[in-house]
Design brief:
single chain, about 300 residues, Growth Hormone, Chain: A, 11 helices
């Protein structure tokens, strides 16, 4: 509700203030470029309508279950397939020179680690929220705080920690000691894993039926937010630097697909909340993300060489 109202107000403000933008963002292509764009839009619309019709037919035939779980499974396959086909197309037919090919390879590698990061981070709205609701003592002077309020911890840490991380990177850069983008990715994954390690301890304490302090979740969100600040803005910046200038817009779209894929994976992982002991579930996430972070750290040097001067 409130979020939708805010989006509408933002759109109104954009329309009212558009005259102040001048020629920024104005289409400067030829009539042929405009026609090509229209054909692409029409093709996409037809393909989308065809996909919806195909899903409806498959559902009626029983070959595909048009349920939330079925759509999520199919969505993950579709997103991963589109990303894979796009990268293959770019490498084979994108007209890349050797330097561009290496840089695109780095984007593909970071795409995978980004999806893995978000598959853990987005547990905040699912499994971690269930921990807040069922296993956390939220009583404050006889009043029980809503579990959803703990979702505000991450935004609060973002606001408070973002200037700290920005200043830290500048301070290290001035001393020629700033970590490279792949190293920051590695650190982000490890911090994410450490956050889930805290949850392993918390759920072990709660296994006896007692509720635990909300500080366990606060510490987890602190580590997760720190990892997010190491990975999320760095990923966006790195893609714009590594992608060929003519493909920056496309690559940003593909990059956001890694976040979509991570969200879908997060939902799949959260589905084990009722099926696995929570220490085991969070332990598996810890092991996966920390190992991924360490693995990426081991390949930082060769990845940096492939980046050809981009830090």
């Amino acid at each position: 509700g409130a979020a939708g109202v805010g989006m509408v107000l933002g759109l109104v403000q954009y329309l009212l203030g558009g005259r102040h933008l001048g020629t920024a963002g104005r289409f400067t292509g030829t009539a042929e470029d405009r026609d090509r764009g229209r054909r692409l839009l029409l093709t996409s619309a037809v393909a989308g309508a065809g996909l919806v019709a195909l899903l409806a037919l498959l559902d009626r035939s029983g070959a595909f279950a048009l349920t939330a779980e079925g759509v999520a499974d199919a969505g993950g396959v579709i997103i991963a397939g589109i990303a894979l086909l796009y990268f293959l197309y770019i490498f084979l037919f994108g007209g890349l020179n050797p330097t561009e090919s290496k840089r695109m390879g780095v984007i593909a590698v970071l795409f995978l680690f980004s999806a893995l990061f978000w598959s853990g981070f987005e547990q905040a709205g699912s499994s971690l929220n269930l921990v807040a609701e069922r296993l956390t003592d939220r009583s404050v002077f006889g009043w029980e705080m809503p579990a959803s309020w703990l979702q505000s911890v991450n935004p609060l840490f973002i606001i408070s920690l973002a200037p700290v991380f920005a200043a830290l990177w500048v301070w290290l850069s001035n001393r020629s000691r700033e970590p490279s983008s792949p190293a920051k990715f590695s650190l982000g994954l490890i911090l994410l894993g450490l956050g889930f390690l805290v949850m392993v301890w918390a759920t072990m304490l709660a296994a006896g039926g007692e509720q635990v302090s909300p500080m366990w979740l606060v510490v987890t969100y602190f580590l997760h937010t720190s990892g997010e600040l190491c990975l999320s803005p760095v990923g966006l910046s790195t893609v714009t630097k590594l992608a060929p200038q003519r493909m920056v817009g496309q690559m940003m779209g593909v990059w956001f697909m890694s976040i979509s894929l991570g969200n879908l994976m997060a939902g799949q992982v959260a589905g084990f909340f009722e099926q696995m002991p929570l220490p085991q579930l969070f332990g598996a996430v810890t092991l996966t993300t920390v190992v991924a972070g360490v693995l990426l750290a081991l390949f930082v040097r060769p990845i940096r060489r492939m980046m050809s001067g981009v830090h």
